[in-house]
């Protein structure tokens, strides 16, 4: 369908119901228009598929497959409202009437700037669930790419957008009417699975691979297999997509599994959804606090608000930024300097080790003595409450072995 014909269709009534208002986009296999449903008064996306065959049986098969696509239902799928065949310029052509998503594509959003990993996680859950629904119906998308992920502005304050997977069934329909010989390719070179690149019949695992590349690009803003057609296709046949450590271990593990070159070892779409949901949950939920030695407390009686902290020793070790693996190329001079500095630090640590251990032992002994004193005071308080008439306090006797041990312990930590 040429540009002149595309423009000429503006104002045309398709299927006696859909009035074409403007051309939205055009590809080699279909043209998409903004149209108005004159029955319901709503704006829709109208996709007219270029004629594939004059064979009546091919048209009937195409219609059956459209009905299958109409049965798919998920919030992350662009809803198919209607479909049919109409005579356009004297040629019978199939058209699809779909929900119009008034927002950018994921590709446009990636170009704009970084995307919050939480939003990527939520998008991954939605798209993987949508793929599971479609795969369960025996449909394979075959052309998952950022340009086929449409974004709607979210109405919720905690997320930027909601995602919808578009063009479901277009490659499926074209495959059944056009790709009758082995070795045909349907899809976009940058996101094809290795088996698609070899010309094999794509299966659900192919969609999982392509989705993995899309999510990787959303996180890194870098296409895994750039370059000309043959270079891009060949690259995935001999190597895996580079997955940087900066995206975190969980994302790295999931994307590595999704983009495995062997289809049989890739997770299913439903497994991807479950893994992405766990990642998103970890990103939005603070990690539980793990008590350390500095949290050790002794509560006396009912006065829990006045806990007595036992002498605990903690050492803080600075951590590198999460997931960052910096690489540096050092000259021989720099290596020698680092070697000397490392030796100096080791010597300094050996000189301070004894002093640190001595201070630690004194704190421990102080804590033990403090606990004995507190225990004695608590015992006195309990006896004072339970005895009706005052009596001379009886202090707990420190038996000779314990006294001797405490004296020996104090001498051992004396400077």
TrEMBL record:
The keyword Transmembrane helix applies. Its EC number is 2.7.11.1. The chain crosses the membrane at residues 364-385. Pfam families: Pkinase. Keywords: ATP-binding, Kinase, Membrane, Nucleotide-binding, Transferase, Transmembrane, Transmembrane helix. InterPro entries: Kinase-like_dom_sf, Prot_kinase_dom, Protein_kinase_ATP_BS, Ser/Thr_kinase_AS. The keyword Glycoprotein does not apply. Residues 18-284 form the Protein kinase domain. Residues 339-356 have a biased composition (Basic and acidic residues). GO terms for molecular function: ATP binding; protein serine/threonine kinase activity. Residues 339-359 are annotated as: Disordered. This is Serine/threonine-protein kinase PknA. The gene is pknA_2.
């Amino acid at each position: 369908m040429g540009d002149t014909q595309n423009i000429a269709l503006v104002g045309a009534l398709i299927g006696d119901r859909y009035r074409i208002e403007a051309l939205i986009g055009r590809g080699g296999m279909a043209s998409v228009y903004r149209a108005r449903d004159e029955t319901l008064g709503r704006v829709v996306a109208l996709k007219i598929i270029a004629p594939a065959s004059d064979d009546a049986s091919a048209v009937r098969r195409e219609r059956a497959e459209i009905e299958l696509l109409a049965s798919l239902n998920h919030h992350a799928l662009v809803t198919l409202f209607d479909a049919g065949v109409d005579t356009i310029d004297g040629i019978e052509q199939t058209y699809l009437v779909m929900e119009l998503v008034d927002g950018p594509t994921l590709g446009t959003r990636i170009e704009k700037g970084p995307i919050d990993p939480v939003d990527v996680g939520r998008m991954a859950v939605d798209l993987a669930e949508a793929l599971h629904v479609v795969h369960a119906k025996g449909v394979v998308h075959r052309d998952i790419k950022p340009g086929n992920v449409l974004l709607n502005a979210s109405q919720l304050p905690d997320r930027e957008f909601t995602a919808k997977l578009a063009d479901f069934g277009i490659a499926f329909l074209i495959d059944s009417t056009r790709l009758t010989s082995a070795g045909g390719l349907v899809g976009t070179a940058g996101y094809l699975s290795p088996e698609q690149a070899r010309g094999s019949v794509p299966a659900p695992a192919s969609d999982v691979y392509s989705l993995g590349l899309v999510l990787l690009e959303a996180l890194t803003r870098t296409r895994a297999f750039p370059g000309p057609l043959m270079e891009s296709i060949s690259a995935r046949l001999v190597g895996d997509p580079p997955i940087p450590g900066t995206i975190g271990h969980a994302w790295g593990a999931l994307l590595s599994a999704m983009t495995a070159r062997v289809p049989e070892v890739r997770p299913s779409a439903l497994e991807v959804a479950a893994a992405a949901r766990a990642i998103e949950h970890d990103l939005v939920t603070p990690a539980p606090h793990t008590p350390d030695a500095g949290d050790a407390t002794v509560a006396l009686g009912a006065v829990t608000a006045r806990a007595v902290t036992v002498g605990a020793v903690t050492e803080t070790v600075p951590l590198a930024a999460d997931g960052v693996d910096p690489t540096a190329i050092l000259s021989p001079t720099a290596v020698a300097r680092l070697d000397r500095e490392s030796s100096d630090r080791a010597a300094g640590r050996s000189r301070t080790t004894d002093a640190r251990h001595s201070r630690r032992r004194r704190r421990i002994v102080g804590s033990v003595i403090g606990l004995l004193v507190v225990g004695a005071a608590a015992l006195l308080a309990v006896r004072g409450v339970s005895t009706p008439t005052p009596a001379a306090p009886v202090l707990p006797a420190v038996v000779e072995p314990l006294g001797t041990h405490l004296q020996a312990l104090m001498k051992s930590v004396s400077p």
